Amino acid sequence: MSRPIEEATEKMYRGLWAVIVPLLRVPKEPPTIPVNSSRGGEVRSFQPAPGWLKYMKFWFWIVLAITDIGLAIGYVAAAAALIFEGLWWVAALLLPPVLVLIIVPDIIAFIAIHLKYDATWYVMTDRSIRIRRGIISIRETTVTFENVQNVKVQQGPVQRHFGIADVIIETAGAAAVQKGGAGVGNQARIEGVADAPALRDLILSRLKQSKSAGLGDEERASRAEAVQSTDRRENQRVNLAARPAWRPEHLEALRAIRDEARALAAALNGR
After folding, report:
1. Distance separating alpha carbons of residues 168 and 158, to the nearest angstrom
2. Choice between 66 and 236, residue whose per-residue pLDDT is larger
3. Which whole-number Å values give the CA distances from 219 to 147, 190, 216, 223, in the listed order?
4. Residues whose CB falls within 8 Å of the CB of residue 118, separated by 6 or more in sequence, listed in order
5. Mean of all residue pLDDT scores within the chain
6. Which DSSP category does 42 fall into?
7. Do residues 119 and 134 touch, judged by C-beta distance below 8 A?
8. Residue 185's closest CA among 154, 149, 218, 214?
9. Fewest beta carbons within 10 Å, which of 82, 169, 210, 270?
């Protein structure tokens, strides 16, 4: 795509985006995610790096260039044959449709990749990460770090050229799906980030914190309360065991009751 066409398409896209947002109710802001305020959690919102947009343009342009070259060669061959037969006016009539077939897909592709770029959001807290994609059908995926099994960076040679990479988060069950040969299962892909190794290390550190914390402060408080309850019962048992079972006054009262019972029995027998 030439520079003038790209600039014109850029202006067209900005106008189209201004129409799409209110029409389809596309959120302008990143998605929200619950944060534990008592722990002072930090929320980080970000989008793919600009290199991801260039990366997508690169592949679209390659595909469209091949298509455009094929259409141009086909038209030249057909026009030459028509002119040789004296039907030059037919070749002239075919020129506008061919130009439309060459230019319109370029415009559509440019708009499509910009829409994909602007609609992609990543939001991360100390406990989870949420990914949003889509324009017509908005999809949000949330991954809790307690369920993460592995985090890896994936980067091809073209991605390396544009300075981007993908961070792949594998959750519980993903490894089993891969071993079964059914493809990649429970995965979350953070596409087109410029600092992929740093982001991977950050996720791994938060994963370690989450697993070391167990189920959180609530679980620790519950365990502490259970331990205290057990200690109280043990102390009560020890106190009861250490306390004398019968005091002297108790024994004296029992003797008096025994003597009275004997006297009553003797009186009844004397009758």
Report:
1. 18
2. 66
3. 17, 31, 6, 6
4. 17, 47
5. 77
6. -
7. yes
8. 149
9. 270
Q: What are phi and psi of 164, to 5 degrees?
A: -130, 170
Burial (CB < 10 A; 0-12, 13-18, 19+), residue 216, is middle
Average pLDDT over residues 180-199: 76
Could you tell me whether strands 139-144 and 128-133 are parallel, antiparallel, or unpaired per DSSP bridges?
antiparallel
Q: What is the pLDDT of residues 95-126, one digit of tens each?
A: 888 888 888 877 777 788 888 898 899 999 88
Q: Which residue did the predictor score with more confidence, 157 or 15?
A: 157
Please report the domains of the chain, with CATH numbers, ordered by start residue: 1-30+49-119 (no CATH), 42-47+121-214 (2.30.29.30), 223-270 (no CATH)
Which residue is it, tokens 């009758």? 271
Please check the confidence at residue 176 and state whether its pLDDT lies above 50. no
The token pair at 262 is 């004997």
Residue with tokens 């534990």: 36
Q: Which amino acid does the sequence have at 64?
A: L
